[in-house]
Amino acid sequence: MLNILGFFLELIDRHAFWLYLACLVVILFYVRSYIRAHRDRINTIFTIEKEVAAHREGRAMTNIGAVLGVVVVITALKYYVVPTINVEELVQPTPTITLAIPTRAPTATPTSVPPTPTPRPRPTRRPVRVLPTATPTPLPLPPCPNENVRITFPRMGAVLSGRVPIRGTANHPRFQFYKVEFGQGEKPTTWHVIHDIHKTPVVNGLLEELDTTVLPNGVYWIQLTVVDQTGNFPPPCQVRVTIQN
Predict the structure, then answer these.
(1) What is the DSSP annotation of 122-175?
(2) Distance in angstroms (rounded) separating the CA atoms of residues 38 and 31
(3) Smallest Cα–Cα separation from 198: which of 216, 224, 233?
(4) What distance in Å separates the CA atoms of residue 136 and residue 173, rounded to the nearest whole number?
(5) CB 178 within 8 A of CB 194
(6) How many helices (H) and strands (E) does the chain have?
(7) Per-residue pLDDT, 47
(8) What is the 3-state secondary structure (H, E, C) of 21-51?
(9) What sign for the dihedral angle of Cα 166, 153, 144, 211?
(10) Do 37 and 53 contact (CB within 8 A), yes or no?
């Protein structure tokens, strides 16, 4: 543990400039994302697009704050922690234990001829009975009212863990964009957009990817909404899942 801590402090002490530079690049990236989201929220006239743009603004500001926190931690370690300790004392070589392997003295082998073994009768093998295996019943598809707004994976009642791909179809004759949201509980009152809206239709393909490791375990609903060029949308497709990491 001390070796890891010493290596970490030595890395910050020697490469603080490059760490600051990397943080600056990340901050500029999120500032650009915030400006674009703010411009989209001001220019759009649709309520759904304003909501999505506001979500992107908040996410960009949160990420900027997190990177600034990393900068503060690097500064504190560089100028207040590292000067007060001796990093070389923390990084100590791991002792190597050498075990002596005993050697056995060779023993004389008698030259007598061993007796001829009597062959034993081979046992009769019993026939192996193969028991039939039960085929698991596949989970049902969600009851989506529109064939162009459909989630095919995951299915109703699926148990999810890790990074889960969300597949299906998001299309419309006057397509503008689609979004995939999630809500917690049996009857969600709040929906959260996964990543961002998508302005390219999808037919029987990958709609989005959900990282369940950042969410608490429990029941969730996943919702797909396709918006047309007038700002209207057909009934969304919803699927009930359970997250258990």
Answers:
(1) PPPPPPPP-PPPPPPPPPPPP--SBTTEEEEESPTTEEE-SEEEEEEEE--TTE
(2) 10
(3) 224
(4) 38
(5) no
(6) 4, 8
(7) 83
(8) HHHHHHHHHHHHHHHHHHHHHHHCCCHHHHH
(9) negative
(10) yes
Query: In whole angstroms, what is the distance from residue 161 CA to residue 71 CA?
Result: 32
Phi, psi of 124 (to 5 degrees): -80, 125
Which secondary structure element, helix H or strand E, spans residue 56, and what is its range? Answer: helix 47-76
Q: Is 208 exposed, middle or buried (0-12, 13-18, 19+ CB in 10 A)?
A: buried
- CA triplet 34, 162, 64: central angle to 5 degrees? 20
* Residue 179 token pair: 């979004």
Residue 89 DSSP SS3: helix
Residues 59-93 have pLDDT tens digits of 989 999 998 988 888 888 878 877 777 655 555 55
pTM over 0.90: no
Is there a contact between 209 and 163 (Cβ–Cβ < 8 Å)? Answer: yes
Would you tell me how many other CB atoms lie within 10 Å of the CB of residue 126? 6
Sheet containing strand 237-243, edge to edge, reads 158-160, 237-243, 218-228, 175-184, 192-193
